[in-house]
Amino acid sequence: MTMPPHWRKLALTAHVTFSVGWIGGVVAYLTLGVAAVTSQDTQTVRAAWIAMELTGWFAIVPLALAALLTGLIMSLGTKWGLFRHYWTLISLVLTVLATVVLLLHMPDVSFLADVAQEAEGARLDGLGGDLFHPGLGLVVLLVIQVLNVYKPQGLTPYGWRKQHEQRTVLLP
Amino acid sequence: MSQTPVRPDREAPPSTPRWVKVFGIICIGLVLLFVILHLAGYGRMNHTPGGNTPPAMGIENVGHTALVEHGGQQP
Which residues of A fall within a CB distance of 8 Å from B34? Predict the structure, then answer.
């Protein structure tokens, strides 16, 4: 079932906002991660970890879940569908994967932010930063964005069957 | 959106596009790289090779990514 045009525009606006916001949140998180790794100042490292935890839980996680939800609404409410085209299928898989890794990773961030609040000197330096997961996550999000903008052609076998069925029904 | 009735000209589904195959190969490579780096310790939170913070730091690496502070509260 496809959405009426005004609902489709609203859903598209929400999806683009949440998706781009997710990318922006990860970039902000990476910036803080770089500060935590490179800074020699104790207060900066501590502040960076606290900000990383807050950014993660209160910006990145909600934006990720909202982007996933609005993506599902957009797929199911438009002609594209969830499993009919390779680009929608791959976008779905990558988004779910990125969200799951994010949700599994955030408790570790919280733990280290707690440690950073109490640690001092060399102990604080030992925390390092968190660049691996957000770096890889950013690459995945950019790939999803490119797929969503370019929409490369290619029907899945399921999509081809559905299209075939529709054409058969339309012909007397 | 109106659809023009078109007689199906193919009975078999089209083959997988080349970009999907290339994308799949790249993804498998990246997943393997991710797993190898994790096993090597580079994906862990403290980002020191091997994932182990020196004991002198007072933080011990336990399990996957959990770091447990110890020695802070001695009886």
Answer: 136
Cα–Cα distance measured from residue A114 to residue A15, given in angstroms and rounded to the nearest whole number = 33
Q: Is residue B63 part of a domain?
A: yes
Mean pLDDT, chain B, as a whole number?
Answer: 62
- The residues spanned by each domain of chain A are 5-170
A158, A83 Cβ separation under 8 angstroms: yes
Beta-carbon separation of A111 and B67 below 8 A: yes
CA nearest A98: which of A137, A57, A50, A143? A137
CA distances from B37 to A34, A76, A139, B34, B49 (A): 19, 36, 16, 5, 10
**pLDDT tens for residues A119-172?**
877 777 777 778 988 999 999 999 999 999 999 999 999 999 988 888 877 665
Residue B60 lies in a domain: yes
Question: Does B52 lie at the interface with A, CB-CB under 8 angstroms?
Answer: no
Contacts A170 to B, Cβ<8 Å? 3, 5-6
In this structure, are residues B8 and A164 in contact, taking their beta carbons and an 8 Å threshold? yes
Q: Does B46 touch chain A (CB under 8 A)?
A: yes
ipTM above 0.90, yes or no: no
Q: Tell me the nearest-neighbour CA distance from A63 into chain B, angstroms.
A: 23
Number of domains in chain B: 1
Check CB contact of B26 with chain A, cutoff 8 Å: no
pTM for this entry:
0.79
Q: Do A112 and B23 touch (CB under 8 A)?
A: no
pLDDT 10s digits, A44-65? 999 999 999 999 999 999 999 9
Q: What is the pLDDT of residue A172?
A: 58
CB contact under 8 A, B8 and A167: yes
Q: What residues make up the domain containing B53?
A: 18-69
Question: What does the mean pLDDT of chain A come to?
Answer: 91
- For residue B10, being part of any structural domain is answered with no
